[in-house]
Specification:
Length: about 575
Amino acid sequence: MVRDDIKSSIEQAMAMAQANGALPTIDWPLVEVLRPKQADHGDYSTNIAMVTAAAVRKAGSNVNSRAIAQAIADHLPADGPVGSVEIAGPGFINIFLSDDWLRRQVPKIVEAGSNFGNIDLGHGQRWQVEYMSANPTGPLHYGGARNAALGDALANVLEAAGYAVQREFYVNDAGNQFNLFAATLYARYAQLFGRDESLPDDGYAGDYIIDYAQKLADEYGDRFLSMEKHAALTELKVLGEEIVLTALQEQLDKLGVHFDRWFREQSLYDSGLVGTVLGKLRDQGDLGERDGAVWFLASHYPKVDKDEVVIRSNGMPTYFASDIAYHYEKFAVRNFDHVVNVWGVDHQGHVPRMAAVMTALGLDPNRLTIVLHGLVKLIRDGSEVKLSKRRGTIITLGEVVDEVGADATRFFLLSRGPEIPIEFDLNLAVAESASNPVFYAQYSHARICSIRVMAPQKGITPDFSNVTLELLTDPSELALIRKLLELEEQIEAAISKLSPHNLTFYSLELARSFNTFYRDCKVLAPDVPERSNARMYLCEATRIGLSKTLSLLGVSAPESMHVEVEL
């Protein structure tokens, strides 16, 4: 990263200053380099002179922090990223990047291609991102689109930062809700053949169940009506789950979301792992009986004031019992270094109890991170939309993607930090104007691609093997290079917050920097072919940076868009 290159230059300067006696020999702390809040204070800044002033004086040198800063500045390597510095206040070193060094970064961006921006924070650590946990009882509600977009983009960013990532969908196919689903499916199936079969209490009333039942009737006829009902329900559970999961995959495919594994909750019971793990907790005194139920004694652990039922008084295990075994399986069986669960904000009370579970299981709770996301409101013509126009029921994820497209859906749902509720403006999402952020970013990419298409029409043949970088001198050109070089830091920031929302803003800033450059600098100028070649080279670097940023968000980077928009 640029910041690391600057740190290295400062460390070299400190060593040189000590070697020639300008500064005493001391144990220097780690150099911290930050971006100033005000642009006129430089590209970066460090307070290393101030934090070492006391140690320098203790070593016998009677210099203040400004003098220390000046000594460091005087010994900065000439060929590094630092072009000039200003000593500010009591000893801040404000750093301005070298124009020559900036120009030399353009070939590195082009050579890196799709790997541009990648950093090695993870060093190959095995991380799992679990998102889109759902009962396989019907289509996905549109609110699930935020979970899908967030988890998928987060996995993209982790991979770009050097982590080995597994993406997992947790299928809640055990427990009473799935039993109700199977019973409802049986009733609808029987009704198709004229049998008077009533829906179970608290069953699923949606018309989609009729669609599922019709699929079964078309394939199997009335086979299940000739069976004993319990046996029929057992088979319908399996077949119904297949129908629902196939439909879920189709919906998620529309959004460009794919999983490495679909993990079934029922497998935790079939393998006996739930019983084994609960037995472990019982043996060590972490389970207790009260009111006929079995409780996990979470209140014995810090920051938890409430115990949690794991086995109900009727003998049925709760979702929490499954969660305990599931997380034991992730860490103790599959040995993930870290797990990220993406959950809706309504699960926030579950977070401290999961930390207690990790501790009880002898696992470091810091290896589990739970990212909570706020709710989504759909807005059309200024009003909230709650029901499907076509069906008069819930709006599904697939319907939203069909209306506005996968790119707009993902971009809008990633445009805020996870904890912030989102109002998704359907009108804006389809607008072909600069006011639509995803359209603005994509149109900017298409504009870059169109430059190379237009070049031969103007008699210009780009030669990227022979670029005169010294011709890139305009402030807009240098500003664009600066913006491109921020991508690594943007990826690092997304990892530190476990949220990729900053990349939506960065994509717009990068597009804006390009459009300013395009306005200020004529790219295709046959009378100055070398300059045109250099500017086309910078365009190619920008295309790579913008494409990479959009790809991290799971948004496409079109090469052409058949509309004319003033940006």
